[in-house]
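Why do we care about 3D structure at all? Because function follows from shape, and shape follows, mostly, from sequence. That is the central idea of this module. The next example makes it concrete: a single protein chain, its amino acid sequence, and then its structure expressed as tokens.
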Amino acid sequence: MSWAFLCDLLSGVNKYSTGIGRIWVAVVFLFRLLVYVAAAENIWKHEHDEFECNIQQPGCENVCFDHFFPVSHMRLWALQLIMVSTPSLLVIFHVAYRENREKHHNQKLYKNPGKIDGGLLCTYLISLILKTGLEIFFLVLFYKLYNGFKIPRLVKCDIKPCPNTVDCYISKPTEKMIFLYFLVATSCLCIILNLSELSYLMFKYSIKCYLKRNVKKQQ
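And the structure:
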């Protein structure tokens, strides 16, 4: 899978982010994207082939695997990375709109098209809310799909066409558990960063509005 588009998106977002936003970009790129590409993807690469049940009944092993792993951890993680990065496109599109508007009117309409103020501030706040909501949604989805954040060594399956309850063994459960915990920890860190940036921008904007009102009253 090519991640070139996501890398370009993250580098573009970095230009218009606050200090906290740049930390978020670094966490997503270094501790999530690179870890996924360099290590985690290979661990789950042959998860279906390495899933073994102590029975030779045709179809039983496939049905049990589908029951316990309805969606691959890695595919769901990849989808999460893409989805939580996509709201940042709103900011890039808004900056592009400002730049095109200046070209259309052939004059300087903004001091800095990439400065977070006015309408761009609202767009930025919406993107932060969407990113936070998506992070929480995927954490809940992970928890519901796999009955918690854990990888058992042994699962018992009694789904047809299995003739009775069979024992199925998951390969490299400890290694997979470590990366799953890492996934959850980095997701929680990104949520904290998004909420911190949201609070910072709202506080900064509130102070700015308060000072403007005081200046008007004094005048």
